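Format notes (please read before filing issues)

Several people have asked whether sequences and structure tokens are stored in separate files. They are not. Every record keeps both together, in the order shown below: the sequence lines, then the token lines. Line labels are part of the format and must not be stripped during preprocessing.
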Amino acid sequence: MPPPPLEIGPAGKAAARAIVRARTARGYSQCRLAARVTALDRPMTATALSRIERTVRRCDIDDFVAIATALGVAPHTFLASSSRDRGHAERAET
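Then the structure lines:
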């Protein structure tokens, strides 16, 4: 029996929210962004992107960098905004 999948942690969830915010701010559909990522030699379907955004699927580092590049955002910017977002969510929970 395979081991259970790893749970997506707070940083992964915050990164997913950052991806959604950047994608919608640019007016991209999931299909359009997936096509842009694929054009960067990182094949991705709209379904895979949807699963990443909904935190159903883990986003590996290669996908993360390709998505950020396709959105015209430096990956470290996503990470920084994810940290701020995560800190805000943690404060709201307390």
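For reference, the curators noted about this record: The helical segments are 10-25, 30-39, 46-53, 61-71, 75-93. The first helix runs from residue 10 to 25.
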